[in-house]
Design goal:
Chain A: It is a multi-pass membrane protein. Chain A: This is ABC transporter permease subunit. Chain A: It is found in: Cell membrane; Membrane. The structure holds two protein chains of two kinds. By secondary structure, chain A is mainly α. In chain A, 81% of the residues lie in helices and 0% in strands. Chain A has a domain of 283 residues: MetI-like fold. The two termini of chain A are 16 Å apart. Chain B is an alpha/beta fold. A six-stranded mixed sheet of chain B has the order 6-7-8-3-9-10, with helices on both faces. In chain B, strands 2-1-4-5 form a four-stranded antiparallel sheet, sandwiched between helices. In chain B, strands 11-14-13-12 form a four-stranded mixed sheet. In chain B, helix 6 crosses helix 7. Classes of the chains: A mainly alpha, B alpha/beta.
Chain lengths: 666, 346
């Protein structure tokens, strides 16, 4: 499904256009006919056609619960796997919590210093200090341990899989849609099955995080190996190197920067799952946010959110520094700073040039390690710092809570009508359209028509089948509720993102102002700003809508801005040389050329809105989200999986349609 | 056959009717072509890179394959050690068919007998110069001290002492290709394959490297196949030159044979700008005579003297100049008219 797969025998564009118009008119007529002639009640998908997956799934769950201890699949499969992962997790947790807190500060300060110098070093240590001052030391370490365990698994699984995918085109082709799906499907979909198979505790949280964070590891390993210098590989071949010798001695070292980029991406993706993973027992900072959400404690959510942002930035910078390490740097070009010289320098001075190389090249790392070990020893023998002192506290809670409560009480004249307006004029009509005005075949027809015009017959058939399947799962009503919200959220987001993106591309100053706001919105977990939004707008569909728009805005704006900015300057100059005004250049040259990128932005917005619409279900957002959350909370496995499948189908249909649409543009 | 002594030994490398077709079903296309049941237009997206090429290379000879880009010459050289798998044909190295070798034999061939030098050097950017050079020995399983010793030796041979512990990208292009050459020489192969080794270099450096290669070749006497798109380079380095076009060899011959007698306009176009004085020898313009003793008052030349070297002599002493054989007997004469006629482009 790359481009439109139907090729018309008529090459004339006019005729094609005419045919497309014909299809649209026909579809519109069909939908109208269905809408008017269909018996008024029921417009809903017939309940009698329900596949009835729920009961067998629930039965399966009961069977799993009853047999978890005894059945070989669990006794020899999932249970030992769980316990290994749990061991790894515990190991990392212990490693981070056992040494006294100053040792950790030193460790991160050293890492930051090695990676990028004094500023990052101060930032790393400062973040940890802030976590301690907020009273979040332990949750922070738990989250870090979760990240490390996930990363370890991602490397253990992702690198070999990436290598295999690089070696075999067939495997690559097979794996690609699976990886796509892992990234598009909202995490809620697999929370229930993962929980069922791995039990409750932190292991399913690791697995769920892993499912989401693994794809970049595989993709970038694959890419790195495939892109490794073909000449070098050929040379190795010509010397009679075996396949394994080529892989190990040439391709993997050359792919290392790309693999390390995968490490960076995986960490960032995993951090995006912190709060969601906390729903199935990940603990850590995510749990703090969830508790704050339940108690509507803005300050607490803000503190935990800030630390999550800090941890994200810290891990991002540290792992990004890994990708910049120049393993082939000549000796003597190493940076000279506080860590150079010392022990490693002294050792290097006493060795022959050939051996001194390693002490010169890795001198700073060696010195840092020695320094850290020395401190650990001192700590264990003399200081014994232990936990972060309880008496050192700094709170953002009270002021933050005070501000939001003030706003809630005094800004009602704005928020009240706004909220009501959104419900009465936007949310209700769109829901009514899908649920009460249009009968289900008309909706399926409309989706199929949309799919046909963007991606051709196969996509149309696939989409129609998917929609019907949602009905067969018995999820038609909540799915239409969700779809109506998604459409609304996407329209709102696009309406805001397009002008902002265009403006940011035109004005560097505006872009500079916008950038830190977008950064913050993108790194802070959506749950965190959900809290004040709920406080201002009350539980219901409105806070979900606002949160989703806020969540999907940054990538949307960025992609649109990027699209405009990457239009080759030659064409812009050419337009200007003909005396076209700035506005004309924008409309006639830049936007048409940036169209694929704008389409991509819309695609991205849809994927993000869908991820958020589920989360909105947590705060009374109705639709599939609430079904999935109920399935999770009450352990109604059947219901959760049905809702999850429906979400997945909806996500894939929307993703494919917009992707095909983006690709069909020249 | 002027620079090598004709030898009666069997040829070192023989290619017979080698084909390489790229595409989804190369074998089917080849069969269809062989039975002539297919038009050349309906290739179904297949590309014939090498089309029934045959040639022989003798021990110690430098065989240059010359052609424009897309003529299939790089594919041809890759077929010889099966870096690219030929679709059809026979490639004999020391009488042994490479195409029938099992993977292990092929690996042995690549490890010990055939080395290759690449157009874009193909160096390993993550290994130091010395480990690049030692790579061939490393995959062969030679222990580290030994292979490093050998690498140091070869690096000295190509004039790179003192650069052992640098990384490739710290070296200039010419030096990088010296590393590539050293890497190929380190395994002490019988056969060297050069795939446009100097085409990525600046003209001056290229000239140096050609000289360097001539110098090495004079002492090492390796059997070489050398790919180039530069006719001057081909003339300079080749004992024999094959001109390739559309995957086929158009003409094979010594530089002199090509210059004197290009088979068609295509070869003629290359030959037109050739420095004829540096390619043609006295033999080509000599008027033979029965063996006679040589008079001693005038200078004589050998049949292998280039016309460029002959001109100053003629300018000083006038014609005709006697051409003598190894025993000092006159075998013919060269006169001004003959030389000038040969030097003028037709």
């Amino acid at each position: 499904m790359t481009t439109r797969s139907h090729s018309l025998p008529f090459a004339q564009p006019n005729f094609r256009l005419f045919l497309q118009a014909l299809i649209w008119v026909g579809t519109a007529f069909g939908i109208g006919l269905l809408a008017t002639t269909w018996p008024a009640v029921p417009r809903d998908f017939p309940e009698a056609w329900n596949l009835g997956l729920r009961d067998p799934l629930d039965a399966f769950q009961r069977w799993v619960v009853a047999n978890r201890a005894s059945h070989p699949v669990f006794a020899f499969g999932f249970t030992p796997l769980s316990s290994w992962i749990d061991h790894a997790l515990r190991f990392f947790e212990q490693a981070l919590l056992r040494p006294g807190w100053p040792a950790l500060l030193l460790l991160f300060a050293l890492l930051g210093y090695l990676a990028a110098g004094v500023r990052l070093s101060l930032f790393c240590a400062g973040s940890l200090l802030l976590a301690g001052l907020f009273g979040l030391w332990e949750p922070t370490m738990q989250t870090l341990a979760l990240m490390l365990a996930t990363l370890l698994l991602a490397i253990l699984i992702g690198v070999p899989l990436g290598m295999a995918a690089a070696a075999s085109d067939r495997l690559d082709r097979l794996m690609r849609p699976v990886l796509d799906a892992m990234q598009t499907i909202p995490a809620f979909v697999y929370l229930v099955p993962v929980m069922l198979l791995f039990g409750i505790a932190r292991v399913p949280a690791v697995i769920a995080t892993l499912i989401y964070a693994l794809p970049p590891m595989i993709r970038l390993t694959n890419l790195g190996i495939r892109q490794s210098n073909q000449a070098a590989v050929e040379a190795a071949q010509s010397f009679g190197a075996t396949r394994w010798q080529i892989l190990r001695g040439v391709q993997l070292p050359l792919a290392l920067p790309s693999i390390l980029m995968g490490v960076n991406q995986t960490i960032m993706m995993a951090l995006g799952m912190v709060v969601i993973a906390a729903m199935i027992g990940a603990g850590g900072l995510g749990r703090e946010v969830l508790i704050a959400l339940q108690r509507l404690n803005v300050g607490r959510a803000l503190e935990a959110g800030l630390i999550i942002v800090c941890v994200a930035m810290l891990l991002d910078r540290l792992s990004a520094a890994l990708t910049r390490i120049d393993f082939a740097a000549p000796a003597g070009t190493q940076r000279q700073d506080l860590l150079s010289g010392w022990v490693a320098g002294a050792v290097a001075a006493r060795l022959s040039t050939e051996r001194a190389y390693y002490f010169q090249a890795y001198g700073r790392l060696i010195n840092a390690t020695l320094l850290f070990l020395a401190f650990l020893l001192l700590d264990a023998l003399i200081f014994q710092f232990g936990n972060f002192p309880e008496t050192w506290r700094l709170g953002l809670r009270e002021p933050a809570n005070a501000v939001v409560i003030w706003a809630r009480d005094n800004l009602y004249f704005v928020t009240g009508p706004l909220s009501d307006g959104i419900v009465i004029y936007l949310l209700n009509p769109s829901r009514d359209l899908l649920l009460n005005h249009l009968p289900w075949p008309a909706i399926i027809l409309a989706v199929a028509a949309l799919a046909y015009t963007s991606g051709g017959l196969r996509l149309a058939l696939g989409s129609a089948t998917g929609m019907a399947l949602i009905g067969l799962l018995g999820m038609w009503t909540p799915a239409m509720e969700t779809l109506s919200q998604v459409i609304l959220m996407v329209l709102l987001t696009v309406a805001i993102a397009v002008p902002l993106g265009l403006l940011a591309a035109q004005s560097p100053r505006f872009s500079a102002v916008l950038r830190p706001i977008l950064d913050l919105l993108q790194t802070i977990p959506a749950f965190v700003y959900l809290v004040p939004v709920i406080m201002l707008f009350n539980i219901g569909r409105v806070p979900g809508l606002i949160a989703a728009v806020l969540y999907a805005l940054p990538p949307g704006i960025r992609l649109i801005q990027l699209g405009i900015e990457t239009v080759p300057s030659v064409t812009v100059e050419a337009a200007e040389s003909f005396g076209s005004s700035r506005w004309q250049t924008l409309i006639k040259v830049q936007i048409p050329q940036a169209l694929p990128s704008i389409m991509l932005a819309i695609n991205q917005i849809i994927v993000m809105v869908l991820a958020m619409v589920i989360i909105a279900g947590l705060v009374g957002g109705a639709g599939l989200g609430i079904e999935a959350v109920r399935g999770l909370a009450r352990s109604e496995t059947g219901r959760g999986i049905e809702a999850g499948l429906a979400i997945m189908i909806l996500a894939i249909i929307l993703d494919r349609i917009t992707q095909a649409w983006a690709k069909s543009k020249p | 056959m002027n620079r090598i002594t004709p030898n009666m030994m069997p040829p070192k490398i023989v290619c017979r009717d080698v084909w390489k077709i790229f595409g989804r079903a190369p074998r089917r296309i080849f069969k269809a072509l062989a039975s002539e049941s297919m038009q050349h237009e309906s290739m179904e997206g297949h590309i014939i890179a090498v089309r029934g090429v045959s040639f022989e290379v003798r021990t110690g000879e430098t065989f240059v394959v010359m052609g424009l880009s897309g003529s299939g010459k790089s594919t041809l050289i890759r077929c010889i050690s099966r870096i690219t798998e030929p679709t059809h044909g026979e490639i004999l190295v020391d009488g042994q068919d490479v195409l029938r070798m099992r993977p292990l034999e092929l690996r042995e061939l690549r490890r010990k007998r055939v080395s290759m030098v690449f157009q874009h050097f193909g160096l390993f950017p993550h290994r130091r110069v010395i480990d690049n050079v030692a790579y061939g020995l490393e995959v062969r399983g030679v222990p580290r001290p030994k292979r490093r010793e050998r690498a140091t030796e070869v690096l000295a041979l190509v004039g790179l002492e003192g650069w052992e512990y640098h990384f490739p990208r710290q070296l200039s292009g010419g030096m990088q290709q010296r590393v590539g050459l050293a890497r190929a020489l380190a395994v002490d192969p019988d056969i060297l394959l050069f795939d446009e080794p100097f085409s990525a270099l600046d003209p001056l450096i290229r000239h140096d490297m050609q000289g360097e290669l001539q110098r090495l070749q004079a002492t090492l006497q390796k059997t070489s196949i050398f790919i180039t798109h530069d006719f001057t380079e081909a003339l300079k380095l080749g004992d024999k030159i094959a001109v390739m076009r559309h995957g086929q060899i158009v003409q094979v011959g010594t530089p002199q044979e090509l210059v004197i007698n290009p088979i068609n306009d295509y070869v003629g176009a290359f030959v037109r700008d050739a420095p004829r004085g540096r390619v043609l020898t006295a033999q080509a313009v000599m008027v033979s005579c029965p063996l006679t003793p040589t008079s001693t008052d005038r200078p004589t030349i050998s049949a292998q003297t280039y016309l460029d070297d002959l001109l100053p002599l003629m300018a000083a002493y006038g014609d005709p100049v006697a051409v003598t054989d190894d025993d000092g007997l006159t075998i013919g004469h060269v006169d001004r008219a003959g030389v000038l006629k040969a030097l003028i482009r037709e």
